[in-house]
Amino acid sequence: MLIGIERKFVFVANTKTASTSIETALAPVSEIALKGTPQRKHMTLHAAIEAHPEIFTQPGQWPRFFFKFGVMRDPLDWIGSWFRYRSSNKVDSPLPAGMSFAEFWEQQDWNFRHADGRPFLQREMFCGPQGRVLADVIIPYPRLGEMFGTVCDGLGVQRPLPRENVSKKREAGPIPETLQRELRAFYAEDYALWERLDTINAAGMAWLRTRLPGAPRPL
Fold first, then answer.
1. Is 18 exposed, middle or buried (0-12, 13-18, 19+ CB in 10 A)?
2. How confident is the model at residue 176, as a pLDDT?
3. Quick one: pLDDT at residue 175?
4. Cα separation, 186 vs 75, whole angstroms
5. CA angle 56, 148, 163 (to 5 degrees)
6. Buried b (16+ CB within 10 A) or exposed e, 101-133
7. Which listed site, 144, 172, 188, 205, has its alpha carbon 20 to 30 Å from 196?
8. Residue 213 predicted with pLDDT over 70
9. What are the boundaries of each domain within the chain?
10. 165 has a pLDDT exceeding 90
11. Phi, then psi, of 47 in degrees rounded to 5
């Protein structure tokens, strides 16, 4: 999670979406960087706004003045990336050697559910408690290179996007069709958001391209 006060942006660090690379690129123009534990680094947009009233309750600094963005993956691609990461990298909670994706799904650990049993979804990063989308732009992961360049232009940042914290295992293996259907049902709310990204982003990117410093986004 990064907050650029002078340039008025908030970067939401969704998991397994090149967030470490983006933070490296934007760190020089960020006054606040929430790093350290996963809970800090991957704080939701709603929680970040609530956690910093000293910024977002000040005249001229309300959330609508800030360009709020992050990156989202197709849910099956996203959980596949988690599987590859925990299967190959030196992590705090590695998967057992030789575990299949089907076995990973069957164990239903923290990658899939919160402690209270709720599904762990990407949409939590970008939406408020009532489901309203709070982010101006949610970049689809396949378009990251293209759209992040436009974001950098809008923020006045001339930095390449490095590749950091990449999973060493490149393929998760095919997911059986029956399991794909089960996963798509599990991630139905994420897919509902995923299918709206073009509409959400059209308005957000248009605002980014035309805004003047300090100009609020129209309500």
1. buried
2. 80
3. 77
4. 10
5. 110
6. beebbeeeeebbeeeeeeebbbbbbbbeeeeeb
7. 172
8. no
9. 2-210
10. no
11. -65, -35
- Say how far apart CA 110 and CA 4 lie, in whole Å: 31
Instruction: Indicate the burial class of 169 (C-beta count within 10 angstroms; 0-12, 13-18, 19 or more).
Output: middle
Collapsing DSSP to helix, strand or coil, 174 comes out as coil
Q: Looking at the DSSP assignment, which residues form a beta bridge with residue 2? A: 11, 33
- Alpha-helix runs per DSSP H in the chain: 19-26, 38-41, 45-51, 53-56, 75-88, 101-107, 144-155, 177-186, 188-194, 197-210
Whether residue 214 has pLDDT greater than 70: no
Integer Rg of the chain from CA: 18
Cβ count near 48 (within 10 Å):
25
Query: Residue 140 carries which DSSP code?
Result: E
- Most confident range (mean pLDDT) of 33-37, 66-70, 215-219 is 66-70
Calpha distance 30→2 (Å, rounded): 6
